[in-house]
Design brief:
This protein is of the alpha+beta class and about 675 residues long. It folds into four domains: about 100 residues, no CATH class; about 180 residues, Neuraminidase, CATH 2.120.10.30; about 90 residues, no CATH class; about 260 residues, Alpha/Beta hydrolase fold, catalytic domain (Rossmann fold, 3-Layer(aba) Sandwich), CATH 3.40.50.1820. The chain has an eight-stranded mixed beta sheet, with helices on both faces.
Length: about 675
């Protein structure tokens, strides 16, 4: 009895030194570091929960590179985001919904009142400054067509599926030094594309501001991404020319410094591009045959920029993320960032590409804004987000490796509680990332969806497996779950569990699993396929691939991973669907889903819920109203985490629910 009381006392003490769910959600985080062309400043965004408005609000901050001074630039009630510098470093354009729809605003880096530039009826999607600073190009669907308005007036509102697309068009608007406050006196936008042929995606100005290269696809449907091609628009006569016509997606164009070539991300004609390597190709502006410059780089290459000494791109690398430079002439690839486990998120450059800014961190640190020389990488941090966490006793992370059932090496992040003792056994909770081409890292995160810090403080180990299909391990590894979804993934998870049990650190009788999206699918597979787990949480997960296929907005995903439709090969759809193993289900299961989710539609969760009910398996199903695939508001995120905390506290630790959000 004394031992039990001491254990409860120690657990309570650990929880008291751990951030609460609300504290984790309320912590600031930084993103989108943009260095000014002259290298004097870095603009970046700071996100924090606004509980009164129930929003994660972003504001733009400025860091002075020379001194490290930081100050807040925007402060509206609504978010300000996507800061972009003018070429002369004297102005910053950004987007905000403070007017109701997302519009472009312009502000001086020294502060003052932001000037609204656009007044688009349906808001702005993306934008870029012209290199000469005279104009800004942006994408928007523009005003609703009169015919659509008339139809709505006569018949009410309805949608013709795949027939009522709002195509994104390319627009240009002048950006004078002073923008009038009166909307009637502001510059008026000019339509550069008509919206009838295609929907515009990424775009980039030529160095001389006379041309715009852009990608466009047949329509804005995500299932049409394979139709994305590269075009060039001449601003003089508005002539649009298709630069190439090959199997896509071909997107994210970037100009060479001399304006003679264009680099772009490409599937290189690969029909199964969801898991094949995305490559970078180069093509003359006059047209011709694309030349692949990352053919020997075995991972997705995300194009960032083309500087005087080469093409810059980012890529995941075994739980890390790095910036690379490819030399178009020699095809040599050099890694810029380091050491190996460093995580760098994107990059921006000064005009001469000698200095860069980004957001990054070493293992067991929180991501911070930094600047560095490109030639000799040595990050100098301009923010101190990690200071918020100094008062707490936090988990630590290490990368471990084991072999799956078929001998495939699998890595995963082992999250250990403060004061970890390798001589004792801990309850084990498996938190499974989505994607499947997501990736867990060693960077310290603020908890979302799953209260990892609270679980660890209660005395749990947490395993975050980078199962087959995860990014960062090459194309062959990403292909290992093709026609093997669920089965291969489960083998990777359970072999990791067995590895930790064999090491003597995990309690085989107290194991739980949870995940969102693809992680929710694997969790659903665990529920129906295994009796090894004490509790499971399925977040926006697939239970039946046929149900998913006919309801999702991303049909090519299933066709590529299963290499069939349900009409062509019903057996593979059954073999990889958790619902067809439901007769084995015994594990108490929490199901969570946004009721407006189009990526993984709620019918999959209803199907699993009813099947588990019919089998007499303890199950609880929670729908979060008004949300799509992500639950992206702080109050509902708090509910998601509290529901998960209570579920595992009950079934792993035998406690009754304590949180208000768990009431029936």
């Amino acid at each position: 009895m004394a031992k039990l009381s001491l254990g409860l006392f120690l657990a309570a003490a650990a929880l008291a030194q751990t951030p609460t769910i609300e504290q984790s959600l309320g912590m600031q985080s930084v993103a989108d570091a943009q260095i000014s062309p002259d290298g004097r400043y870095v603009a970046y965004t700071v996100q924090q929960a606004n509980w009164d408005e129930d929003e994660f609000v972003q504001q733009i901050w400025i860091a002075v590179v020379a001194t490290g001074e930081r100050y807040q630039l925007t402060s509206a009630k609504k978010s300000s985001q996507n800061p972009k510098w003018s070429a002369d470093s004297k102005r910053i354009a950004f987007t905000s919904e403070r007017d109701g729809k997302r519009q472009i605003y312009v502000i001086h880096p020294s502060g003052g009142e932001a000037q609204q530039l656009t007044s688009e009826e349906n808001g702005v999607s993306s934008f870029e400054w012209a290199p000469d600073g005279s104009a800004i190009a942006y994408t928007s669907s523009g005003p609703e067509p009169k015919a659509k308005k008339d139809r709505k007036e006569k018949y009410g509102d309805f949608e013709i599926v795949e027939g009522d697309y709002a195509m994104l068009r390319l627009w240009s608007i002048q950006a004078p030094a002073e923008i009038p406050g009166d909307p009637k006196k502001r510059p008026q936008p000019e339509a550069l594309t008509d919206g009838a042929q295609f929907s515009v995606g990424d775009f980039a100005w030529s160095p001389d501001s006379k041309l715009i290269a852009f990608s466009a696809q047949r329509d804005p449907d995500i299932s049409s991404s394979n139709t994305a091609q590269i075009y060039i628009l001449d601003l003089g006569d508005k002539h649009v020319r298709k630069l190439l016509d090959s199997h896509g997606p071909n997107q994210r164009p970037r100009w060479s410094p001399d304006g003679r070539q264009i680099a772009f991300d490409t599937s290189n004609g690969e029909p199964f591009y969801y898991y094949a390597n995305a490559r970078i190709a180069v093509l003359p502006v006059t047209g011709g045959e694309p030349r692949i410059v990352t053919a020997n780089f075995d991972e997705d290459a995300g194009l960032v920029d083309w500087g005087p000494d080469g093409i810059y791109f980012t890529a995941y690398q075994k739980g890390a993320a790095h910036l690379f430079r490819a030399e178009p002439a020699t095809l040599a690839v050099h890694r810029i960032t380091g050491p190996d486990p460093y995580y760098a998120s994107g990059a921006s450059f000064t005009r001469d590409h000698r200095m860069m800014a980004s957001v990054g961190a070493l293992p067991n640190h929180f991501s911070e804004v930094f600047v560095s020389s490109v030639q000799d990488f040595a990050p100098r941090y301009l923010t101190a987000v990690g200071e918020q966490w100094k008062q707490f006793h936090l988990t630590t992370r290490e990368m471990i490796e084991w072999k799956s059932a078929d001998g495939t090496p699998i890595q995963g992040v082992l999250v250990k509680p403060a004061g970890y003792d390798p001589s004792r056994k801990y309850p084990l909770l498996v938190v499974i990332h989505g994607g499947p081409t997501g990736m867990d890292t060693l960077v310290s995160p603020a908890d979302r969806y799953y209260p990892v810090e609270r679980f660890a403080a209660k005395g749990a180990l947490i395993l975050e497996p980078n199962y087959r299909g995860s990014a960062g391990y090459g194309e062959k590894f990403r292909s290992l779950n093709v026609r093997n979804l669920g089965l291969g993934d489960y083998a990777d998870v359970i072999s990791g569990v067995d590895y930790l049990i064999a090491k003597g650190v995990a309690d085989k009788d107290r194991v739980g699993a949870m995940g969102w999206s693809e992680g929710g699918y694997i969790s659903a597979f665990i529920t129906t396929y295994s009796d090894r787990f004490r509790a499971v949480s399925v977040g926006a997960g697939i239970s039946d691939w046929m149900t998913y296929y006919v309801n999702t907005d991303i049909h090519p995903f299933t066709r590529q991973y299963l290499k069939a439709t349900p009409w062509d090969d019903p057996e593979i759809y059954q073999k990889t669907s958790p619902i067809f193993y439901v007769k084995n289900a015994k594990t108490p299961t929490l199901i969570q889903h946004g009721d407006q989710d189009k990526r993984v539609p709620p019918p999959d969760s209803f199907e699993l819920y009813q099947a588990l009910k019919d089998r007499g398996v303890p199950v609880k199903f929670i729908l979060y109203k008004g949300f799509g695939h992500p639950i992206n508001k702080p109050k509902q995120q708090r509910a998601v985490m509290e529901h998960n905390y209570d579920w595992f506290a009950k079934y792993i630790w035998g406690e009754e629910p304590q949180q208000a959000a768990a009431t029936n």
